[in-house]
């Protein structure tokens, strides 16, 4: 029975890794669509969301099946609970990528673009690094890497503040472009929220390995 449970967990790991790859790709495409005002790419992100949603449901059903059939305890139970939570966070990140893509389509609707555009590349790079590091930490059950990734969230928060402040300045200078810069603020906030979701994944890794809930109590020593 224990060997069969181990095999089920390995399969679950693979499913979560596949979902993470899809989500990471969706975020990258969404930001590229924002940078390039690419309608085709934005619509592709939105269309691919159904596949992410289906995968999220399959992973949840797999977790519930394992819980029902094997009734895991202790570390194995924490592992399944962690996968359930990570699965939910990945689906949320996918939704945020869709929200970014929808903002791109919204910008294209009014079709006025300023000479000075906001560069999302730094935020995107941090979000990508955080997501990859969080999944690596999950696979390796590495609390140290999870802690380091959580600390990266401060930088993405800082960049979000900078984008908002710059956008507000540009709205004052170019009120006719207010709708564009408001959309920029939404995109930046969605990226910041992706950082938050990735932080949640890292907190789940710490729970998995140490059995400690650190959401409201700070990082473990």
TrEMBL record:
Its main location: cytoplasm. It comes from the Bacteria. The keyword Cytoplasm applies. It is found in: Cytoplasm. One of its GO terms (cellular component) is cytoplasm. Gene3D superfamilies: Phosphate transport system protein phou homolog 2, domain 2. GO terms for biological process: intracellular phosphate ion homeostasis; negative regulation of phosphate metabolic process; phosphate ion transport. Residues 17-104, 125-205 form the PhoU domain. Keywords: Cytoplasm, Phosphate transport, Transport. InterPro entries: PhoU, PhoU-like_sf, PhoU_dom. Signal peptide: none annotated. Belongs to the PhoU family. Plays a role in the regulation of phosphate uptake. Homodimer. This is Phosphate-specific transport system accessory protein PhoU. The gene is phoU.
